Amino acid sequence: MGKGYFHRVNELSPTRFWINNPTPEEAHSAIAAGAISCTTNPTYAMKQITAASEQDFALRAVDEAIRKTDDDGQAADLVQQKLAKRILDIFLSLYKKSPREEGFVSIQGDPFKDDDPEHIVDEALRYKNLAENFIAKIPSTKAGLKAIEALIPEDIPIIATEVMGIPQAVYTCELYERVSKQCDKRPPFYLTHITGIFEDHLKNVVERENITVPADILWQAGCIVARKQYRIFKERGYPGVMLGGGARGLHHFTELVGSEMHITINWKGTADRLLESDPPVVYRIDTPAPQYVVHRLMEIPDFRRAYLEDGLTVDEFKDFGPVVLFRNSFLKGWSFLLDKIRERREIV
């Protein structure tokens, strides 16, 4: 039997596969298929509670948390930690083989507190005690960037997430570079580009504002920005690794193969389909977009803001449309968990 798709990607290219929001079973399957690390986000508890195979364990975690505290926010945090700890343990052996390079598992805390840098820092310092392979996942917004600035001297591994445009990427990389030089600490650093959510937002804008851009061109938007971000990342010698995320199609992995990027994808609907379809491993990271395609996409104001290096200021990062769309999904997931906690308080 031949090697599976991700094993061939690992062998034939520098691109690497991470798994996003997995159940324990999916985490084991992903590692067997070639995954080297894992991401979770604030929807993680909701996804475990609604997964038939994980519901009993997740609800026990909720019940255990509400016995420990009367504060629903603290209980939600305890649940998130309990569920993530299982995945940290699964990936720990990879981390021990390649410390600070593989086996990471990210945790991103309460999205309702994303405007509070001190809270974000406190979360990361607490989560650090869960396992040595923990990596903090922090939004590249004004508040999140302040937290990143505080955590670099603590040598905490960091994923800068919710990056939707070139201005966010450049600002975040330059902040990391400046602070790491000042404190002489260089914790592992990953910079995202959230391809699929970005495209979802553009589709919403085009429909709402009656902008005529063909679907075939919209399909390319996320990868076009990701390729530009990657090119800048490499040309300027920024430290760290670029991490693709927010995939909504197989192309959000396959179109970036050949890069030194790592790409995190869901098991169901993306990783499993790539394993089943078993496409050839073809370098596509340097495939240029025709100028006509970029020109048509520039008709969409939010594509232009993402694509141009001066398209956004740091004060605008948080309220940039695709960032809001992504964060709203996190707020929805965390609200689900808070509702479940309140519901269980009535019966436990």
Structural summary, described in words:
The chain has 16 helices and 8 strands. By secondary structure, it is an alpha/beta fold. It has one domain: Alpha-Beta Barrel (TIM Barrel), CATH 3.20.20. The protein has an 8-stranded parallel beta sheet with strand order 2-1-8-7-6-5-4-3. Helix 4 (55-68) crosses helix 16 (321-345) and helix 9 (195-209) crosses helix 11 (221-235). It is globular. The mean pLDDT is 97.
Outline type: globular
- Are there runs of 5+ residues with pLDDT below 50, and where? none
CATH superfamily: Aldolase class I
The N- to C-terminal Cα distance equals 51 Å
The total count of helices amounts to 16
Mean pLDDT: 97
- Indicate the radius of gyration in whole angstroms: 20 Å
Helix-strand string:
HEHEHHHEHEHEHEHHHEHEHHHH
Throw out a few tags for this protein.
16 helices; 11% strand; 55% helix; globular; single chain; 348 residues; eight-stranded parallel β-sheet; alpha/beta; TIM Barrel
